[in-house]
Amino acid sequence: MGAKFAEAKISAIVLTGLAALATLVSCNTEGAISPSLDNLKSLEILELRNNALSGFIPASLGNIESLNYLDLNDNMLTGTVPLEILSRLVTTLDELNVPHNDLDGTTRKSVTRVMGAHSSAAAAALFTGFLALATLVSCNTEGDILYAQRLAWKDPFNVLQSWDPTLVNPCTWFHVTCNNNNSVVRVDLGLAGLSGPLIPQLGGLSYLQYLELYGNELNGSIPAALGNLSSLVSLDLQGNLLTGAIPDSLGAISTLRNLRLYGNNLTGTIPQSLGSLTSLVKLELQKNSLSGTIPASLGNIKTLELLRLNGNSLTGTLPLEVLSLVLVGNLTEINVARNNLDGTVGSTGLRVTAIIQDRLKISG
Ligand SMILES: *[C@@H]1O[C@H](CO)[C@@H](O)[C@H](O)[C@H]1NC(C)=O
Ligand SMILES: *[C@@H]1O[C@H](CO)[C@@H](O)[C@H](O)[C@H]1NC(C)=O
Ligand SMILES: *[C@@H]1O[C@H](CO)[C@@H](O)[C@H](O)[C@H]1NC(C)=O
Ligand SMILES: *[C@@H]1O[C@H](CO)[C@@H](O)[C@H](O)[C@H]1NC(C)=O
Ligand SMILES: *[C@@H]1O[C@H](CO)[C@@H](O)[C@H](O)[C@H]1NC(C)=O
Fold it and tell me: Which residues does the UniProt record annotate as the domain Disease resistance R13L4/SHOC-2-like LRR (predicted)?
C-alpha cells in the first residue's frame, strides 16, 4: 500500500495528463486510485482525467460527502463504478465523468457519458445500467483473481460471502490465508459445495502454497496455468467432476509435495513431466479415466512415499524405475490395481505382494 492521505482540508485535486501518479497510487506495481483518498473530507473536486490509472475505482470515494465533481475520464480503469459513488448522484455529486476507460459493459472510446444528476430518476436509470456489478478493489491483484473465481462459481452455501472485493487485500476473507506480506498462501475450500470451473487466472497467485478444493463439484479441466503456481506445496482437487487431461505444466511446480487428483474423470495420459516433481511425497491419481502407460520418469521421484494409480485404464507394465523406488527410496505403497496392465485382468482378486525390509540408511 502506498501513501495514506492525512485528513486534510483540501478542497480540490486536479491532476491531469500525468503518466504516473506516484502520490495517488495505492500499491507499488501499478497506478491505481488510492482508497485512502477518502480521508480528504473536504474534497469537492477530484479530477484525474487523462492519466494512466488502472485497477478499480475505490468504493471508498463514495464516503467523501463534500465531493461534487469526479472526473476519471480517459484512464484504464476496470470494474464498475461503485454503487457507493453512484448513490452520491442523488445527493451531493453533480458530475461523474468516467468515459474512455475499460469499465465493465462499456466499449472503450465509444460513447461519452457524462453523468450529472440530483434527480433520483436519473440516478435510478444509472443503477439499472450498473446493477449486475461486483464492487471493487483497488490494486488488489490477488483479491481480483479470487473474486473472479468467486464469480465463476456457484456457491449455494454462501461460503464465499466474506470475499468482499472492496477490501484492500483478501487477507481477512474466510478460507484465505496470507503471509506477513499480505500475499495469499492458502485457499482452503474443501467440501464447500462449490460448482463450476477453475479459472486460469488462479495461476497468478504466485505465493500460493495450498490449493485445497477437494470434495466439491468443480467441473471443466485443470487449467494449464496452474503450472505457474511456483510456490505450491499441495494441490488437492480430489473428488470433483473435473475432466480433460492432467496439464504437462504441473511438472514445473518443483515445490509440490502432494498432488491429489483422484476421483475425478480425468482422461489422457499421465504426463511424463510429473517425473520432475522431485519433492513429491504423495501422488494420487486413482479413480479417473487415465490411459496410456505409466511413465518411467516417475522413478526420478526419490521422495515419493505413496503412489496410487488404481482404477484407471492404464496399459503396459509398472516400469522397473518406479518399482525400484521401493528399494532405494521411501515408497511404501504402490497401487496399480484395476487398470489394463499387461498380464492382469481387472477383476475382484487383487495380487498384493509385500516387500518387507529394514529401514533404509540415511545417506550422506
Ligand atoms: C516479503 O517481501 C520481502 C520483499 O519483497 C521479501 O524479501 C520476503 O521474503 C517476503 N516475505 C514472505 C514471507 O514472503
Ligand atoms: C459445468 O457444470 C455446469 C452446470 O452443470 C454446466 O453448465 C457447464 O457446462 C459445465 N461445464 C463443463 C466444462 O462441463
Ligand atoms: C505462466 O506465466 C507466464 C509469465 O507470466 C505466462 O507467459 C504464461 O502464459 C503462463 N502460463 C500459463 C499456462 O498461463
Ligand atoms: C468419463 O469421461 C469419459 C470420456 O469423456 C466418458 O466416456 C465417461 O462416461 C466418463 N465417466 C464418468 C464416470 O463420468
Ligand atoms: C525418506 O524419508 C526420511 C524420513 O522421513 C527422510 O529423512 C528422507 O529425506 C527421505 N528421503 C528422500 C529421498 O526423500
Answer: 199-314
Whether the CB of 107 sits within 6 Å of ligand 1:
no
Distance 87 CA to ligand 2 centre (A): 36
Could you tell me if residue 126 is left (phi over 0), alpha (psi between -120 and 50 degrees) or otherwise beta? Answer: alpha
- Measuring from atom 3 of ligand 1, which residue has the nearest CA? 181
Question: Amino acid identity of 328?
Answer: V
Q: 266: buried, middle or exposed (CB in 10 Å: 19+, 13-18, 0-12)?
A: buried
Atom of ligand 1 nearest to the CA of 183: 14
| Span from the CA of 282 to the centroid of ligand 4 (angstroms) | 25
- Three cell numbers written together for 35: 482508497
Q: Name all domains of the chain by residue range, CATH numbers in brackets.
A: 12-130 (3.80.10), 141-335 (3.80.10.10)
Determine the Cα–Cα distance for residues 351 and 347; give it in Å rounded to an integer.
10
220 pocket-lining for ligand 2 (C-beta < 6 Å): yes
Interval 101-144: pLDDT, tens: 777 765 543 333 334 433 333 333 332 222 222 223 234 589 99
Grid cell locating 334: 504402490
- Residue in the block written with cell 450498473: 130
pTM: 0.69
